[in-house]
């Protein structure tokens, strides 16, 4: 049996146990997956206790992804470039850190939504940890360029420079966004959490695919995108399920069929 968990604080809202129970039933893998509330200052102790009790892997959510990066004794390329870990696999004394967020986003866009990212102009709003986690997998799809816009322009510029070896990137302040359509806009800011919409030109959304990393509700960004003639408006539920599927495969070697699970969870919400 695979003893697995998700660590976070808060954690009660997490859909991960539900998703992984569906994966287990679908693939026939014997899994026990629990939610674990880790004290803010005791992630390492909580993780070690879980491993000592037979834990073979765990997911990590807010606010412990940096702690998990430091906890891992070995890291994948995705984790190393993201500077954060959301999945750990335990192999003996080795804890392998992975970041499945970007893979989850790309799989949702390409497999579930049928979007070819090659030769596309992608605008990402925000330059925090969420953006850092998705940049490498996006750039590996060979878009024309990925533009990063942020309130503090220097943060966007630095992040773009950090990833310039993987593809064409540029960074600038939100006020520099042109009123000219792009192919894809990804909202990776915390504005949706706060129920706010950034001040950006409406014309950039015309005909664009607009994707909010948030899920579970219609966000101000999604409403703005619809009003301004986006060709497609999507929330982050598919990314949530796809990043979980990548973690499940990382642990068990089994690849779940995600489409039906996304549909089931969406129907429940």
From TrEMBL:
EC id: 1.1.1.25
Name of the protein: Shikimate dehydrogenase (NADP(+))
PANTHER family: BIFUNCTIONAL 3-DEHYDROQUINATE DEHYDRATASE_SHIKIMATE DEHYDROGENASE, CHLOROPLASTIC (PTHR21089:SF1), SHIKIMATE DEHYDROGENASE (PTHR21089)
UniProt xrefs under InterPro entries: Aminoacid_DH-like_N_sf (IPR046346), NAD(P)-bd_dom_sf (IPR036291), SDH_C (IPR041121), Shikimate_DH (IPR011342), Shikimate_DH-bd_N (IPR013708), Shikimate_DH_fam (IPR022893), Shikm_DH/Glu-tRNA_Rdtase (IPR006151)
Residues the record lists as binding shikimate: 14-16, 61, 86, 101, 215, 243
Originating organism: endosymbiont of Bathymodiolus septemdierum str. Myojin knoll
Gene Ontology biological process terms, A to Z: amino acid biosynthetic process; aromatic amino acid family biosynthetic process; chorismate biosynthetic process; shikimate metabolic process
Record flagged with keyword Electron transport: no
Gene: aroE
Entry keyword set: Amino-acid biosynthesis, Aromatic amino acid biosynthesis, NADP, Oxidoreductase
Pathway(s): Metabolic intermediate biosynthesis; chorismate biosynthesis; chorismate from D-erythrose 4-phosphate and phosphoenolpyruvate: step 4/7
Active site: 65
């Amino acid at each position: 049996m695979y003893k697995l968990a998700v660590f976070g604080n808060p954690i009660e809202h997490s859909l991960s146990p539900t998703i992984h129970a569906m994966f287990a039933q679908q693939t026939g893998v014997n899994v026990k997956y629990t939610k674990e509330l880790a004290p803010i200052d005791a992630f390492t102790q909580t993780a070690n206790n879980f491993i000592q009790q037979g834990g073979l892997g765990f997911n990590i959510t807010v606010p412990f992804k940096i702690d998990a990066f430091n906890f891992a004794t070995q890291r994948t390329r995705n984790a190393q470039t993201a500077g954060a870990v959301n999945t750990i696999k335990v192999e003996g004394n080795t804890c392998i850190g992975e970041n499945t967020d970007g893979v989850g986003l790309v799989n949702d866009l390409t497999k579930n939504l049928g979007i070819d990212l090659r030769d596309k102009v992608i605008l990402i709003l925000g330059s925090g940890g969420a953006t850092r986690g998705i940049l490498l997998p996006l750039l590996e799809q060979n878009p024309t360029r990925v533009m990063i816009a942020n309130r503090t322009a220097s943060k966007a510029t630095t992040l773009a420079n950090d990833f310039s070896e993987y593809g064409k990137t540029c960074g600038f302040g939100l006020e520099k966004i042109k009123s000219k359509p792009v192919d894809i806009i990804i909202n990776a800011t915390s504005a949706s959490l706060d129920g706010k919409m950034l001040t950006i030109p409406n014309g950039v959304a015309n005909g664009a695919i607009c994707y909010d990393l948030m899920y579970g509700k219609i966000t101000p960004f999604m409403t703005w995108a619809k009003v301004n003639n986006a060709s497609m408006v999507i929330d982050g539920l598919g990314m949530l399920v796809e990043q979980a599927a990548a973690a499940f495969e990382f642990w068990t070697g089994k690849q779940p069929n995600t489409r039906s699970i996304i549909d089931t969870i969406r129907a429940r919400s």
